[in-house]
Amino acid sequence: MMKKYLPLIYAGLVIGLLMLAAATQQPKPAPASVPNFGMTLPDNYRDEFSLYLVVDRPDRTVRFVYAAPDVVEAVQAGEEIPYGARLIIETYDAQTDLVGNVLRDSTGHLIAGTMQPNIHMIEKRDDWTVQQLPTPIGVIDWNFGSFDAQSYLPSTENRNDCLTCHDNGAFRRDFVFSRPLLEDFVSEGEVQYLYCRFPGRGNCI
Ligand code: HEC
Predict the structure, then answer these.
(1) Number of C-alpha atoms within 13 angstroms, CB side, residue 44?
(2) Whose CA is nearest to atom 36 of ligand 1?
(3) Does the N terminus or the C terminus of the chain have fewer Cβ atoms within 10 A?
(4) Whose CA is nearest to atom 10 of ligand 1?
(5) Rounded to the nearest whole angstrom, what is the distance from the C-alpha of residue 176 to the centroid of ligand 1?
(6) Looking at residues 72-79, what average pLDDT do you find?
(7) Cα 163 to Cα 161: distance, rounded to the nearest angstrom
(8) What does each C-alpha distance from 52 to 85, 88, 89, 129, 148 come to in angstroms?
(9) How many Cβ atoms from other residues are within 10 Å of residue 120's Cβ?
(10) Contact 167, 144 (CB under 8 A)
(11) Which of the residue ranges 10-14, 47-51, 53-57 would you say has the lowest mean pLDDT?
């Protein structure tokens, strides 16, 4: 009598074990070289954030700066940048012609070509842990993240440099260098343009 049901019991056991294995399977841990500083680059920021600033420099770079909707709303309302705020900056090499002269659009601005390897983001939160911040000295509201422009995964670029430069140059603007240009964007409704005569990330604002 029992014998008849044995294959069924056996099959049930196998299915049960398979389900258990699937349920307890751990998500693949990120490769050791991917740092975890508690920030995630939003997939769709180019659609959901506002492009408010373009910066051209003599070293043939073009930067695009984006603000999340809640940042724009806060600036519109004349309020402090709220917790949860995120701002993103991308760097491109300017396009050149075959002999290496930079190309310009009809307004004389550089034309963005290949994107540089890292996308940078700052994020304001009141619950960063010391381990997530670039430096354990002083807990601040803003964290700094660098992400691979292809995979969007966190990259190993030195984040202490971010903090040092933003702290030196933009401390009084809540760490946001381009705050005045964000205000102009909000009041004029137009993407702001800045030609900065310094190469690298010298500050012109
Ligand atoms: C040597 C100075 C310097 C360093 C280092 C630096 N930045 Fe900036 N950053 C600037 C300046 C200046 C601007 C204003 C835009 C411009 O002129 O390109 C800016 C703008 C930004 C913005 C747009 C919001 C704002 O503040 O205007 C973000 C986001 C940002 N940086 C993130 C980072 C991150 C993340 C790092 C490190 C991986 C970093 N920055 C390193 C100088 C620096």
Answers:
(1) 3
(2) 162
(3) N
(4) 201
(5) 8
(6) 95
(7) 5
(8) 15, 11, 10, 30, 22
(9) 22
(10) no
(11) 10-14
